[in-house]
Structure formats: C-alpha cells, structure tokens
Amino acid sequence: MITRFITEVSTVFNPFSPKAKTARLFLSFLPPNARQTMKVSTKLLPRVSKDPSFVQLKFSTNSYISDQQRIMYKSADDSFLEDGKEMKLDAEKLGIKGVIEEVDRHSRILSRQEELTGN
Amino acid sequence: MPPRISPPSKAIASILRCKRPVRIQRHYATILPAASHEQITKSSPPIARYPTTQPPSYKPPEFRKSQLLRQYASLIRTTPLMLLFQHNNLRSTEWVGIRRELATALRKVDEARVAAGYPAENVGEGIKIQIIQTGILASALRIVDFYKPESAPPALDPTDPATPSMTIPSFNPDGSNLTHVLSKAAHAATSKKNHPLDPLLSGPLALLTFPAVSPQHLKAALSILSPVPGQFPAPTRRANPGWHDLAVQTGLQKLLLLGARVEGKVFDVERTKWVGSIEGGLEGLRGQLVAMLQGVGAGVTNTLEIAGKSLYFTVEGRRIMLEDKAKGVSGEKVEEPKA
C-alpha cells in the first residue's frame, strides 16, 4: 500500500463485529512511523453498537515533508499545495483488498503528478 | 545316468523358496536363574506403551504450531483475566520501553499492597504482555471453553509394578480415546464451534495476562497502556519520567485495547474499565459485602427477637390478667365471709 500521500486517517469500528476486521487490518498496514507523518485517530464503539465501520482518509501531494519544507514549497509553486482529497471508504463492503485498491489508485495519480513536476 | 526326478523349473523354485520360513532362529542352550519368590507372586511390570509426558498426538507434536497450541491452552486455563490489544507495527525498542514501564508500575502496586498490610503475593511479577499467533489462540480458546472430556483417563503410572496391567491407559492406534489438547477428540469437538471472542481474533494481537483477578493491578496496567484522564490518569512527568520517553509514547499510540476475557466471560472496553475501577480491589469488594451482610444479620436478629418479644409480652399480659382475676376472685371470697 502506498501510504506516502496520506495525511489523515480516522477509523470508527466496533471490534466485536466481524466486519470491523477491515478497519483493523488497515490500521495494521500503516508503517511504524505513521504517527509522525499523518494524523491517526481511532474510535472504538461499544459492543452492542450496530453502527457501520468506516475508514476516512485525507491526501496530500507532497510526500514525507516536514512543515517547514511544505511552507517553502508553497511559496515556490502553488501546484505543491495539498490536494486534500477526502475519501470515506465503507470498510464493511469493500474489504481490505478493496480499501487498499482505492488508496493505491489515488496515490498513484499523486505520485505521477509528483514525477511530472520534477521531484 | 540322469536323475529320475527332473529338477523343478525356475519359477516354481522361486515360489517354493518364498514359502519356506526365512530363517529359523538359533536357540542357544542357556541356564536361566530360577525365578525369585517376588517374580512368581507378582505380575511382571506392565510395559509402558508411551511415556506419560508424551501421549500420542493427533497433530504432529514436533511442529511449532502444535506446541504453541498447548502453550496457549495452558495459558488460558491459568489466567482468569486477560486483556487483548491490537499492536500496529510496534518497533522492538518501543516494546522494550512499554514492558519496562509496565513492570515498574506493577512493582509499585505490589509494594503499596505490602505496605498496606496485605500478604505479599507478587501478582505483578506474573503479569506479562506477549504477542500471540491469532489463529492458534482462537483454536486454544475453543478447546478450553468447549471441550470438556467427561472421564479423565486414570492417572496410573504404567511403569509401576503395582499397576494391574488391565488398567493401563491403553490407546487405540488411531488415538481415538485420548483427551489431551492435541488429541483428535478435542479437534473434532471444537473445530466447528464459534467462540464469542472470535471477531476480536484477527490481525496482530498481543495479550496482557494476569495470574489473578486484581483490580488494583488492572488499574495500574490500564493507566500505563491506555490512560483515560480522570479514571485511569497517566503518570505525571515528575513521578514517572520514563513513561514520557519518545519510544514509549510512539509505541503506546500504536497499541489499541480491544477487549478482555474475565473469568471466562467476554468484556468490551467499557466493562474492562469498570473492572479496573473497582475501589480498593477485591479486599474493598469483600469489605462492602461483609458490611452488607452484617446489616442483614442485625435485621434478622431484630426480626427474630420481635417474635420472641411479642410472645413474651402476650404471655406476660395473660399472666397479669389471670393474676388479677385470681386476686379478684379471692377478694370476693374474702369479702363474702365479712358480709
């Protein structure tokens, strides 16, 4: 999974529902230093809750850059601004493969843009 | 002159050779010592068909999986309280930090208990956090909770000569009458069942196991591993600077409390926190119970006394009444002669 472009992850699930597996696996696919490069928030529902589980994501075009660098880039060229695309993925329907596919599809577009602009 | 009987053909000769006994064992003439008295009166020691520590197994015992299953089953049987955590790609330095902080916090609880006058049990030393293989744990949980063999095989030592040879726990070659964790019976009884903890058992899991249900230790562990401001406050920077290390903090962000198994029952996060928030631990609960029972006792004594008292008053009243009557009669009688 390409996680370079994700800036924010928020998941909601009830661990006692078998359908929560997708959201939990998604969290386990994030790299060890994920908390330094993106905001991760997790909400656990109580056992009796029937609310659906979902994964919400936000993207940026700049991969792995500190805030200071981001400000520099912004002043240099507006095309480096975060695209800020938000995705709300229904974890119950897609399954972990589907979620990864969606994330990778958008991430590949972003990485191609990055290559074309010469980074 | 050629022999009258022609030799048998080669094919027949080979068949004949096969039917002949392969080789007759040689017997040597030896002098056996006479059997002793004990050998005559007692039966010879029965032959152990397998070591008692290694009963034949349905699953190949040399696999790591099989041994892990045995280990998990014994772990589940001996821990009345265990917490399940999901660990998302923790680094080894982070694990080291978390284990260190947990151990120091639990040691403090033990010391506080000893200082408060309770006997030293060292529950804290038995509390461990460990990563487990999820699928094997699920199987072990099902075996522990659903597989209850009706009759345990008799605990006899097959090498003991006093054991009558008829009662040796013999086994069928297919191992169909064995009842241990790796046996075929255990597998058949549990493989199609669903455990209430099953939905939690997916993805990377770690277990925090307690050798006894101790709310105080649970509270200390929760305040380290998943602090909630107010209920389970995190240690302050002054009291415990190690907890605020970068490695520990990044590790704790990736550790997620999912649920618990308390004395065979499945608890979610809220119920787990409730167990941890029992004031004063088990002693506190016992104190509350004793106070309640004492109140009940006083009530019962009062109730019982009331019946006795009312009887006493009734009888006493009747006695006074009778005495008065008797006095009255006697008074009348006394008056009559006067008149």
From TrEMBL, chain A:
UniProt keyword Ribosomal protein, yes or no: yes
Main location: mitochondrion
Subcellular location: Mitochondrion
InterPro entries the UniProt entry points to: Ribosomal_mL53, Ribosomal_mL53_fung
Molecular function GO terms recorded: structural constituent of ribosome
A GO cellular-component term linked to this record: mitochondrial large ribosomal subunit
Pfam families per UniProt: MRP_L53 (PF10780)
Family matches, as PANTHER family: 54S RIBOSOMAL PROTEIN L44, MITOCHONDRIAL, LARGE RIBOSOMAL SUBUNIT PROTEIN ML53
Family: Belongs to the mitochondrion-specific ribosomal protein mL53 family.
Protein name: Large ribosomal subunit protein mL53
UniProt organism field: Cudoniella acicularis
From TrEMBL, chain B:
Region Disordered, residue ranges: 39-59
Family annotation (InterPro entries): Ribosomal_uL10-like_sf, Ribosomal_uL10_bac_type
Signal peptide: none
SUPFAM superfamilies associated with the record: Ribosomal protein L10-like (SSF160369)
Family: Belongs to the universal ribosomal protein uL10 family.
Protein name as catalogued: Ribosomal protein YmL11, mitochondrial
Species in which this protein is naturally found: Cudoniella acicularis
